[in-house]
Amino acid sequence: MTTSFGAATTSAALKDAKLQIPNFHGLRPAAASSLTRNALPLPSSTRSLVITRAVSTPVQPETTTVKRSKVEIFKEQSNFIRYPLNEDMLTDAPNIGEAATQLIKFHGSYQQYNREERGSRSYSFMIRTKNPCGKVSNQLYLTMDDLADQFGIGTLRLTTRQTFQLHGVLKKDLKTVMGTIIRNMGSTLGACGDLNRNVLAPAAPLVRKDYLLAQETAENIAALLSPQSGFYYDIWVDGEKILSSEPPEVVQARNDNSHGTNFPDSPEPIYGTQFLPRKFKIAVTVPTDNSVDILTNDIGVVVVTDEAGEPQGYNIYVGGGMGRTHRVETTFPRLAEPLGYVPKEDILYAVKAIVVTQRENGRRDDRRYSRMKYLISSWGIEKFRSVVEQYYGKKFEPFRVLPEWEFKSYLGWHEQGDGKLFYGLHVDNGRIGGKMKKTLREVIEKYNLNVRITPNQNIILTDVRSSWKRPITTTLAQAGLLQPRFVDPLNITAMACPAFPLCPLAITEAERGIPDILKRIRAVFDKVGLRYSESVVVRITGCPNGCARPYMAELGLVGDGPNSYQIWLGGNKKQTSLARSFMDKVKLHDLENVLEPLLYYWKQRRQSKESFGDFTNRMGFDKLKEHVEKWEGPVVAPSRHNLKLFADKETYDAMDELAKLQNKSAHQLAMEIIRNYVASNQNGKGE
């Protein structure tokens, strides 16, 4: 029988308050060891018990059969994410099998095929890099640019988690591409799969203590939770040792088993053979800066400073997540909530304790409910906190008061604080291709620039000298990379996932559809009298999994059928409010019938400076739906002549049918016809 040691110790500790482990700091750094840690009840056998645990699930009675998902069995039998991927990679087939398809995700790749091609499937692979804080060296950027042309589809895609995606790589080229990335200061390890994904942090290269600490913390957390068993390098570079260094505090935190967090004899001390129940997402930021959508992550870490700006510790949020399933109400998006505060030197131990709590208690039978948000929703935050504290070894301090959040795009030119500049560039949907790709490469190569990828699918050029500002601005503008004041405000905050044709989960269009949808929304703005400078946060996904975080949008479109979307309303520009489902199965060609009355109603009834998302929450969905159902077009200011356009109902009905074909009201079409008729006769063109 396999057991879960962490779950057992937690259960015992909660039942028997008399059991207590003495203060033992194992491999903690000296600074942490000198702290007075409030040891919580744990069995005294914690330090000496050595068990190889194949499956990390709560202890069950001997007679109970533990149900596990198929992916859990694949992981258990994989020899730490090697088999059968290692064998499938040696065959001449263009694809890999079911088990290997799940395992290759841990290596940073998804098997895909073009869903628009008929007949035999044309397989390829998407490769996703792992770039904590979105940091990309000059060498790695140029390498990815080359690989996109040589082995991909000629484009690079910037993701909502500050990474690259390379699409269209054939199986026969996978090892070459992976090896090239590894040897050029990059990695794809853990970019996908049931483990900690890329750790977000503000992409702005500001030379400020809080920003520098946030980025350092993100990098340390990424290193702490990186797999250790070598499977990645065994498969892609034949076990070649890639030189890298880790801060000693990361190594010490990983190896520390003072509170029963580790698998003592395992090559994966934190993950074991089963890794985590599902993907795990972490973001780190500073107060006010919500460029990372902090509340959508499993763990959100916020640097806390004193009045002098000196970092003191961290606030921690837990339990965010976007994915859900249509019309299954037991699945839902969720905002993270406050867990507590930890001093600066304890952050790695606190994060590890949270991860282990999810490892030991997250569901492994039904993957729809395996994210940590469901564990916290089931337990409640108080129970979750108490269990985490068993692994952390002390109580969390009260959450520190934070100022209000705001979304920061970092587009345009800014000073870094060290005499150099950085330039944030808007990239529609993060897709870099064509002339834009060629010119961007030329600039990055010519000036030897490093770059950062933002969580909003944009790119930042860093360490720019003042004398380079004008030539860089001019060169990039000629390739379509404009300064933000020349970009439609709707586009600035809009995001979409790739969806068709390669994503196997897509139900309808997202990335390919959003340019036209944004133009149509802008046309509605014009029609109802909203100013060009006004905007709403629009996010579109091809399925309900929420990769582009549509449930945080003021206007979210979530694919729920061919050319059909579920409409979500109620997020805000600060990314602190969860949207709610407003309407199902809205066909693409009917969007204006819903958006026009909503946006007109917002213009007419909003309070001073009230955003669209806040307005929809204040008015309530019942009233909004009533307005949509009764909509007949914008009210035209009454004429001083008080003309009656329609003398009988038959004429009105006929005009109304014609108007609907042009997405107009009967009144609008009639006035348009009359104006055109009068104008033509005045010009002597009447017949």
UniProtKB/TrEMBL annotation:
Reactions catalysed according to its record: hydrogen sulfide + 6 oxidized [2Fe-2S]-[ferredoxin] + 3 H2O = sulfite + 6 reduced [2Fe-2S]-[ferredoxin] + 7 H(+)
GO terms of biological process kind: response to cold; sulfate assimilation; sulfide oxidation
Main enzyme class: oxidoreductase
Domain Nitrite/Sulfite reductase ferredoxin-like, first and last residues per copy: 124-178, 414-467
Main location: plastid
Alphabetical list of Pfam families matching this protein: NIR_SIR (PF01077), NIR_SIR_ferr (PF03460)
InterPro entries, per the entry: NiRdtase/SiRdtase_haem-b_fer (IPR005117), Nit/Sulf_reduc_fer-like_dom_sf (IPR036136), NO2/SO3_Rdtase_4Fe4S_dom (IPR006067), NO2/SO3_Rdtase_4Fe4S_prot (IPR045169), NO2/SO3_Rdtase_4Fe4S_sf (IPR045854), NO2/SO3_Rdtase_FeS/sirohaem_BS (IPR006066), SiR_ferredoxin-dep (IPR011787)
Location of the protein in the cell: Plastid, Chloroplast stroma, Chloroplast nucleoid
Protein's UniProt keywords contain Heme: yes
Domain Nitrite/sulphite reductase 4Fe-4S: 220-396, 492-630
Assigned EC number: 1.8.7.1
Keyword annotations from UniProtKB, A to Z: 4Fe-4S, Chloroplast, DNA-binding, Heme, Iron, Iron-sulfur, Metal-binding, Oxidoreductase, Plastid, Thioether bond, Transit peptide
Required co-factors: siroheme; [4Fe-4S] cluster
Molecular-function GO terms, alphabetical: 4 iron, 4 sulfur cluster binding; DNA binding; heme binding; metal ion binding; sulfite reductase (ferredoxin) activity; sulfite reductase activity
GO CC entries: chloroplast nucleoid; stromule; sulfite reductase complex (NADPH)
Xref: NCBIfam families: PRK13504.1, sir
Known function: Essential protein with sulfite reductase activity required in assimilatory sulfate reduction pathway during both primary and secondary metabolism and thus involved in development and growth. DNA-binding protein that binds to both double-stranded and single-stranded DNA without significant sequence specificity to reversibly repress the transcriptional activity of chloroplast nucleoids by promoting DNA compaction and possibly regulate DNA replication.
Oligomer status and interactors: Monomer. Interacts with ferredoxin.
Family affiliation: Belongs to the nitrite and sulfite reductase 4Fe-4S domain family.
The protein's name in its UniProt record: Sulfite reductase [ferredoxin], chloroplastic
Taxonomy of the source species: Eukaryota, Viridiplantae, Streptophyta, Embryophyta, Tracheophyta
